Amino acid sequence: MPAVSFQNVSKSYRTARGELQALKGVSFDIEPGEFFGLLGPNGAGKTTLISILAGLARASSGAVRVHGHDVRQDYAAARRHLGVVPQELVFDPFFSVRETLRIQSGYFGIRHNDAWIDELLDGLGLADKAGANMRQLSGGMKRRVLVAQALVHKPPVIVLDEPTAGVDVELRQTLWQFVSQLNRQGSTVLLTTHYLEEAEALCGRIAMLKQGQVVALATTSDLLRGASSNVLRFKTDDALPPDLAAQARVTGRVVQLPAQNALDVERILARVREAGATAEDIEIRKADLEDVFLEVMTGAAASTAAVASPLPTEELKA
Ligand SMILES: Nc1ncnc2c1ncn2[C@@H]1O[C@H](COP(=O)(O)OP(=O)(O)OP(=O)(O)O)[C@@H](O)[C@H]1O
Question: Is 0.95 surpassed by the pTM of this model?
Answer without folding.
Answer: no
